[in-house]
């Protein structure tokens, strides 16, 4: 009897509350987003998002990582490594520095273990074993450190460091399970260095360098397994040049340039395999959009967005449309949202977000709703979050994050939960090592 009473007492007083509900007055909806997916664009932020198209750019998104949902937003086991033109290794296997998970929760969000390092403008990639690899970033110092999140334990473990410290880079998952990191900014200079992470060994190996040093670019995984890197910024100028990486050869090949130089843009892989690039900045905020045809290696302009914007997100919905949300323009942060129809090549305005924001994240949930959270707005750095319902074209607020944050990274876990990591929480120096789950 005593033991039965003791067990009941523990469960009745337990403070471990995991909340994964949507606080919404509108009907359930479907959608998805950023930061990293099997074909993804990582804005050196994302991003990401995981989706059929994405690479984590420190923003859009996406994001560069993978998503388990049928759609995606603009961010595997190991096998043989790609050939590398430079064979330098940077070792260090996973070791110590494990942080325990906590369980303080707010509606929709649950805090989890803190990272070993504070960081912003890093990348986060979901590996095929379910772990999340976070790499690089900035916290007053350019970082080459990397760490792994274990979703089952809610803890972080340090793994091998990159050969080059960097922020504003992208991370892409290759077909063989390796993670390719490209470009970025280090000590005020753009990088052309590329390297890949082997999840089996915890080691980074340099591979062929890009033809052009760049950061704030996008990286998209094409159907043939190549990685298409587009635009960005060199040490001084916005770029329109484009190149792709061949994982088998470990080499980069230039392809046709975009019609417009751009950075802070998004890149989304459409159902037909084309890559849609939209918006960005090149001294002027852009509303232009263009399509890359991987078979022909050419770019074609398509319909312009209704609003010029940069630092926005782009999510591929289940019906193949691309949802672009928020961003920054010459008139500050935006709450307007629009949809791209690949069949017609046109953009249509849909319901506006409740809060104007940029440098936020967008992720597609298992129920196909699109979760948008954090970023910057007129009131500063945000912790608010909201959900887009593709069926109704409307937004509903959901629980706030535990921490306001921008310039952070997002990943979709195998169980469908959304992991957000790091970022900046105030306009002063307030880099985050916190992580939380939606």
UniProtKB/TrEMBL annotation:
Superkingdom, natural source? Eukaryota
- Which residue positions does the secretion signal occupy? 1-16
Keywords recorded for this protein, A-Z: Kelch repeat, Repeat, Signal
Annotated coiled-coil segments of the chain: none
Biased region (Low complexity) positions are 24-104
For this protein, the record's SMART domains field holds:
Kelch
- In residue numbers, the region (Disordered) covers 24-109
What name has this protein been given in UniProt? Uncharacterized protein
Give the source species.
Adineta steineri
């Amino acid at each position: 009897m005593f033991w039965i009473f003791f067990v009941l007492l523990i469960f009745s007083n337990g403070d471990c509350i995991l909340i994964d509900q949507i606080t919404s007055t509108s009907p359930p909806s479907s959608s998805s987003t950023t930061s990293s997916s099997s074909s993804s664009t990582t804005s050196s932020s994302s991003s990401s998002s995981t989706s059929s198209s994405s690479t984590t750019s420190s923003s859009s998104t996406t994001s560069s990582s993978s998503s388990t949902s049928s759609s995606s937003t603009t961010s595997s086991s190991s096998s043989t490594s790609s050939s590398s033109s430079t064979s330098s290794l940077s070792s260090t296997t996973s070791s110590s520095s494990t942080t325990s998970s906590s369980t303080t929760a707010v509606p929709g969000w649950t805090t989890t273990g803190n990272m070993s390092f504070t960081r912003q403008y890093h990348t986060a990639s979901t590996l095929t074993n379910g772990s999340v690899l976070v790499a690089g970033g900035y916290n007053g110092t350019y970082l080459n450190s990397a760490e792994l999140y274990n979703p089952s334990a809610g803890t972080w473990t340090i793994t091998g460091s990159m050969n080059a410290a960097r922020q504003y880079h992208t991370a892409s998952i290759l077909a063989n399970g390796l993670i390719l990191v490209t470009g970025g900014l280090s000590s005020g200079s753009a990088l052309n260095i590329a390297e890949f992470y082997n999840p089996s060994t915890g080691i980074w190996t340099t591979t062929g360098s890009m033809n052009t040093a760049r950061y704030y670019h996008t990286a998209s995984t094409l159907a043939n397994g190549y990685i298409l890197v587009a635009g960005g910024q060199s040490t001084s100028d916005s770029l329109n040049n484009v190149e792709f990486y061949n994982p088998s050869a470990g080499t980069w090949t230039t392809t046709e340039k975009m019609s417009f130089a751009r950075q802070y843009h998004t890149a989304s892989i459409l159902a037909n395999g084309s890559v849609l690039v939209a918006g960005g900045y090149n001294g002027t905020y852009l509303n232009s959009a263009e399509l890359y045809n991987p078979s022909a290696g050419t770019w074609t302009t398509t319909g312009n967005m209704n609003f010029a914007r940069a630092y926005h997100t782009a999510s591929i919905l289940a019906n193949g449309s691309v949802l672009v949300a928020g961003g920054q323009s010459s008139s500050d942060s935006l709450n307007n949202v629009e949809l791209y129809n690949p069949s017609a090549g046109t953009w249509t305005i849909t319901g506006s977000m409740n809060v104007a924001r940029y440098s936020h994240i967008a992720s597609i949930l298992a129920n196909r709703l699109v979760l948008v959270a954090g970023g910057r707005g007129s009131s500063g750095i945000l912790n608010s979050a909201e959900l887009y319902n593709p069926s109704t074209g409307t937004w509903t607020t959901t629980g706030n994050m535990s921490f306001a944050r921008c310039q952070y990274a997002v990943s979709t876990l195998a169980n469908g939960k959304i992991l957000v990591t790091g970022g900046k929480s105030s306009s002063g120096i307030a880099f985050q090592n916190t992580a939380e789950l939606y």
